[in-house]
Specification:
Mean pLDDT: 87
Radius of gyration: 22 Å
Helix content: 25-40%
Distance between the termini: 26 Å
Length: 483
């Protein structure tokens, strides 16, 4: 819509004191102005990038409240999206509410809590945690945003020890569409819904998390192999899903096409060390990750690091948000892994590269993340709406599509191809008798249905809460719960 500046005058008259940003004029030489706008509007994948006409950047909870009252009044004529500090997949053609000013950090040793503003990245949070003896359940790469991660689940380095990141959230402060401010703990059902579907009810402005003991050192990084080593490495990954009894251990095994090199296999081990332990020696024991060096890695940057450095080192291996690459992510959750699950993923990657336009998919890949049995068996006090009731054992498969922005974009076809990759893995798993569990909310594929993520009983609860807290369905980005 052509944006009506009179509407903004109405917002300012309401007492809103936050920033209001407009697109820089074409040809402007003000680099600072361009950078501020780019940071507030860019997206991880260029296919999701829209061209908003204004950005609200509130600095206080009261400003969020006034902005939402204004947006509610114009609901239906003004589209909007809320974004925290991360990859920026939440986009709008009209208004973006950027929570970048919400960067609170408070570690309280007496209550063993860390309070965070949602507008930060995990790199920022980890940097603030360096001087403390604690950590929190956060992202495995630093550029992921706090707000979206903690409302959609959150798979972490320490998930085998503590479950999902959202299960380690004590409380969320939320601003509702009508401007009211409340803490999720005031309604136990809402608190549960926030852990796995939290972006459906309001704008989160503060998050209180459990402070957890920080491992003194960790072993992390990645080892690269020729693609023909996948089958052998996969056998060890399968064992981790059934035989691993050490919750300090986690792993990601991936296969992707590296530009200028070809298909490549990557293993990212992680071990949370304990006081007095030589964690590097422990990592190389045969029953832990010692087998990884039996398959002649062509590159090995795994090493002993601080906990924070483990997240920073992964940033170098994964595409950063820059609005120049078509990048989409989807995935599925399985009860275990089997040989055909890996074969199906490898075939999908090979099929992409065999196409006449195969260069479009340089960087596309598939990631396997095994977790321990009962890793998701959380207490009722921190229960969320995902994973589904009764599910305690999950193993993640993430499918990523990458296309350099210098090539013609095909976002719809890319999304279809990604769904085909997920489907191929799921069908292979089912043929092996492996259960396909509901999909992971933070791996939302365009075109997905709510039933892909939640069972009917959970959806009934979520829709009841939508009618109570968001009756006009203002917050309808992502998984469309409905009323």
């Amino acid at each position: 819509m052509p944006f009506d500046t009179n509407l903004l005058a109405e917002l300012k008259a309401s007492g809103y004191t936050g920033d209001i940003l407009f697109p820089p004029l074409k040809g402007t030489a003000d680099e600072k102005e361009n950078d501020v706008w780019d940071l507030a509007t860019r997206s991880w994948g260029c296919q999701a990038k829209k061209n908003p006409q204004v950005v609200f950047k509130p600095g206080r909870v009261e400003d969020v409240s006034k902005a939402l009252i204004w947006l509610s009044k114009h609901h239906g004529e003004v589209d909007f999206a809320v974004r925290s500090g991360g990859v920026g997949q939440s986009q709008s053609d009209d208004v973006i509410m950027d929570l970048g000013h919400f960067d609170k950090f408070d570690y309280d040793a007496s209550s063993e809590t860390v309070t965070l503003g949602p507008g930060q990245t995990w790199r920022t949070v980890y940097e603030k945690l360096i001087s403390t003896p604690v950590t929190v359940m956060g992202g495995r790469v630093g550029y992921v945003g706090v707000g979206g991660f903690l409302t959609g689940g959150g798979l972490c380095f320490l998930t085998n020890m503590y479950g999902l990141a959202s299960n380690n959230v004590i409380d969320y402060q939320i601003v509702l569409a009508d401007g009211r401010v409340l803490w999720a703990s005031e309604d136990p059902e809402l608190a549960q819904a926030m852990r796995g579907a939290g972006y459906s009810f309001g704008v989160v402005t503060e998050i209180v998390m459990k402070a957890l003991p920080k491992p003194p050192r960790v072993y992390a990084g990645y080892l690269l192999y020729a693609a023909d080593k996948l089958e052998a490495l996969a056998k060890h990954v399968e064992k981790l899903t059934t035989e691993n009894t050490d919750p300090r251990i986690s792993l990601i095994l991936s296969l992707f096409h590296a530009p200028g090199f070809g298909p490549i296999c990557c293993m990212s081990p992680f071990i949370a060390g304990i006081e007095g332990e030589d964690v590097a020696e422990y990592a190389k024991r045969p029953e832990v990750f010692g087998w990884a060096w039996d398959y002649a890695p062509i590159n090995d940057n795994s090493k002993v690091l601080t906990f924070e450095e483990a997240a920073f080192i992964n940033e170098n291996a994964i595409h950063r948000p820059d609005s120049t690459t078509s990048w989409q992510i989807g995935g599925t959750m399985l009860s275990s892994f089997g040989p055909s699950v890996f074969t199906a993923g490898a075939s999908w990657v090979a099929d992409l590269q065999s196409r006449t336009d195969g260069e479009r998919f340089n960087g596309a890949g598939i990631f396997y993340m095994p977790f321990m049995k009962n890793a998701f068996n959380t207490t009722s006090a921190t229960k969320g709406v995902w994973p589904p009731p009764g599910v305690t054992t999950l193993n993640a498969v993430s499918v990523m599509m990458s296309q350099p922005g210098s090539l013609p974009g095909h976002p719809e076809e890319n999304a279809t191809l990604m769904r085909e990759g997920v489907k191929a893995v799921e069908e292979a798993a089912q043929k092996e008798g492996i259960n396909v569990v509901k999909k992971y909310p933070n791996y939302l594929i365009k075109g997905s249905e709510p039933t892909d993520f939640y069972d009917e009983e959970t959806l009934d609860l979520l829709r009841k809460l939508k009618r109570k807290y968001d009756p006009s369905d203002m917050f309808n980005k992502g998984i469309r719960i409905g009323l």
